[in-house]
Amino acid sequence: MIQTTLNIEGMTCNHCAMTVQKALSSVPGVQRAEVSLPSKKAVVTTEGPLDLPAVVRAVEEEGYKASPV
Ligand SMILES: [Cu+2]
């Protein structure tokens, strides 16, 4: 299991956090995603290496920005 922390930009409320959480969870290989609105970060758990471009794309499609910490 690998845990990757990401900075998430653009979240303003719990709904945003939930949208980002769903987007992260939908990426193949992602087993778990936890989003923190106050710290503007997400922790993504994967079994293998994280497909970062896919994660960034999924978050972007929802109107937010993800980047490695
Ligand atoms: Cu919101």
Please, could you describe this protein's structure?
The protein has 69 residues and is of the alpha+beta class. The chain has one domain (2-68): Alpha-Beta Plaits (2-Layer Sandwich), CATH 3.30.70.100. 32% of the residues lie in helices and 36% in strands. It has helices at residues 14-25, 52-61; strands at residues 2-9, 30-36, 41-46, 65-68. It has a four-stranded antiparallel β-sheet with strand order 2-3-1-4, with helices on one face. A hairpin with a 4-residue loop joins β2 and β3 (41-46). The longest helix has 12 residues, at 14-25. Bound molecules: copper (II) ion (CU).
Query: What can be said about the biggest beta sheet?
Result: 4 strands, antiparallel
The end-to-end span amounts to 18 Å
Provide the CATH topology.
Answer: Alpha-Beta Plaits
> Any low-confidence stretches, pLDDT <50, length ≥5?
none
The chain-level mean pLDDT equals 97
Q: What is the beta-strand fraction?
A: 35-45%
Distinct small molecules bound, one entry per kind? copper (II) ion
- Helix amount, in percent? 25-40%
H/E series? EHEEHE
How big is the Rg?
A: 10 Å
The domain tally reads: 1
Strands in their spatial order, largest beta sheet? 2-3-1-4
Give the helix/strand class: alpha+beta
* Gross morphology: globular
Please report the total strand number as a whole number: 4
Can you tell me the CATH class? Alpha Beta
Under the CATH scheme, which architecture would be assigned? 2-Layer Sandwich
Per DSSP, the total helix count is 2
